[in-house]
C-alpha cells in the first residue's frame, strides 16, 4: 500500500486530502487515534502534527498494524518570494536541523514515485497558468523515516495552499504516480545548484533520470563523504549527477572519492540532458 500522510495543521495538506477523498472509493476506520481512509492499494492518514516534525512516523503507524511500502507527504510549501509553485523533494538535513529532523540525517527517498508524479503533474500544469513545477533540494524534517518517502507540496502562500485546482491536480497526480507501473527510471543523486535545483528539475522532466537526494550549493560547507555516500545508498542511486556550473573543486574531490569507493559514475547535467532524453 502507498500511504498518503496529511496534516490537520496544514491548509494545503487538507486541500489535497479533500480532493483525494472525492476521487476514489475510500473506506474509513480508526488506526489508534488517527482517521485512516483506504482502498486496496492507497491509504490516507490524517495526523495532527506538523509533517516536518513527524520523525519515526512510519514506525509508529506500523505498530498500529498499518502495512505500507512508501509514504507520500501532502504538504504546503512556504517561501519569502511567494511564488506559485508545485514542488516535490526528499526530506533530511546536512548541516543544521532548524525545521525538524536531525543534523546529518536523511530520510529514505522514493525516486520512482517522484518521477511518475512529475510526469503526471507536467501533463496538467497548464491548467494552472500561474503555477510552475520544480524540484527542491533536500531540506527540513522528518529525517528519521526509513520507509521510502517524499514531500508533494503546494506553495507558497495561503491563497495558493487553498487553491482548489492546485489541490485537485496534485491529488490526481499522486494517484497516477502510485498506479503507474513504469519502474525502469535511472536513479541518481544530484549535487549543486540553487534550492530549486533548476538543472535537476529539467532532467527530471525531460530525461529517463530521476533523483533521490539533491544537495544545493548552500550545503557545500557542510557536505562530506559520509553524507554523500549515505545519500547514494539510500536513494539506490546508480549515478551522481552534478550541476557543473556550481560544484566547487573541494566538492568535486568529495564526489570523486565517493564515486570511486562505490564504483559508480559521475555525470554532468548537460551530458544527461543530451544523452538520456525521454522518448515520445
Automatic annotation (TrEMBL):
One of the protein's GO biological processes: D-amino acid catabolic process
- Any binding details for the cofactor? Binds 2 Zn(2+) ions per subunit.
| Enzyme class label | hydrolase
Q: Which Gene3D superfamilies match?
A: AF0625-like (3.40.630.50)
Q: Which NCBIfam families match?
A: PRK03995.1-4
- Annotated family: Belongs to the DtdA deacylase family.
Q: Write the protein's name.
A: D-aminoacyl-tRNA deacylase
Upper classification of the organism: Archaea, Methanobacteriati, Methanobacteriota, Archaeoglobi, Archaeoglobales
Amino acid at each position: 500500500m502507498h500511504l498518503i500522510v496529511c496534516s490537520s495543521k496544514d491548509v494545503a495538506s487538507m486541500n489535497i486530502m479533500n480532493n483525494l477523498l472525492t476521487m476514489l472509493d475510500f473506506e474509513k476506520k480508526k488506526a489508534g487515534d488517527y482517521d485512516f481512509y483506504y482502498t486496496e492499494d492507497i491509504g490516507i492518514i490524517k495526523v495532527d502534527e506538523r509533517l516536518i516534525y513527524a520523525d519515526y512516523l512510519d514506525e509508529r503507524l506500523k505498530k498500529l498494524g498499518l502495512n505500507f511500502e512508501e509514504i507520500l507527504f501532502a504538504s504546503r510549501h512556504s517561501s519569502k518570494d511567494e511564488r506559485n509553485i508545485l514542488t516535490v523533494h526528499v526530506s533530511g538535513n546536512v548541516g543544521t536541523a532548524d525545521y525538524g529532523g536531525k543534523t546529518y540525517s536523511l530520510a529514505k527517498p522514493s525516486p520512482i514515485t517522484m518521477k511518475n508524479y512529475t510526469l503526471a503533474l507536467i501533463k496538467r500544469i497548464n491548467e494552472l497558468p500561474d503555477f510552475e513545477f520544480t524540484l527542491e533540494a533536500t531540506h527540513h524534517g522528518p529525517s528519521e523515516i526509513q520507509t521510502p518517502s517524499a514531500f508533494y507540496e503546494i506553495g507558497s502562500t495561503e491563497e495558493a495552499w487553498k487553491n482548489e485546482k492546485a489541490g485537485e491536480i496534485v491529488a490526481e497526480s499522486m494517484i497516477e504516480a502510485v498506479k503507474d507501473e513504469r519502474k525502469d527510471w535511472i536513479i541518481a543523486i544530484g549535487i549543486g545548484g540553487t534550492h530549486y535545483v533548476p538543472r535537476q528539475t529539467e532532467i527530471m522532466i525531460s530525461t529517463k533520470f530521476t533523483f533521490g537526494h539533491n544537495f544545493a550549493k548552500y550545503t557545500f560547507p557542510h557536505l562530506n563523504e559520509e553524507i554523500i555516500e549515505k545519500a547514494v545508498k539510500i536513494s539506490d542511486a546508480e549515478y551522481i549527477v552534478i550541476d557543473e556550473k556550481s560544484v566547487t573543486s573541494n566538492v568535486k574531490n568529495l564526489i570523486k572519492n565517493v564515486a570511486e569507493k562505490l564504483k559508480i559514475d559521475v555525470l554532468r547535467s548537460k551530458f544527461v540532458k543530451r544523452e538520456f532524453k525521454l522518448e515520445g
